[in-house]
Amino acid sequence: MNAIVIDDSSAMRMILRRTLGGLGFQVLEAVNGRDALDKLDALDDVPDVALVDWNMPVMDGLTFVRELRGRREYDSVQVLMVTTESDAHHVTSALEAGANEYVMKPFDRSALVSKLEAVGLPSAAAAG
Ligand SMILES: [Mg+2]
Questions:
Q1: How far is the CA of 53 from the centre of ligand 1 (A)?
Q2: What's the fold here for domain 2-120?
Q3: Least enclosed by CB within 10 Å: which of 3, 5, 29, 123?
């Protein structure tokens, strides 16, 4: 399983990298939406899941999700918004843009696992 973590916080990227790595994911990191699109376009394989922060410089998470969902080659990518923006307006906007699930910061490992399972990622990865 391959994941891309998109967050301008190096601390948050490290937390997600460690958690996902422990679940058996190979993890690519990007510092904003633009960086993520550039890195995805350079890959041969489409990742299984993208974990996307909301507030980032250059290109924020909502814009990234809209850009990603405008590109058919990324239809299979499961998108999890991982953010402190928890009000209904933000959640609705993200889901309408094409995000599959919403993870509130701060989160623990079990919360992340249940969201990964909710988007159909194999329980074998989650069990690791
Ligand atoms: Mg941020």
A1: 6
A2: Rossmann fold (3.40.50)
A3: 123
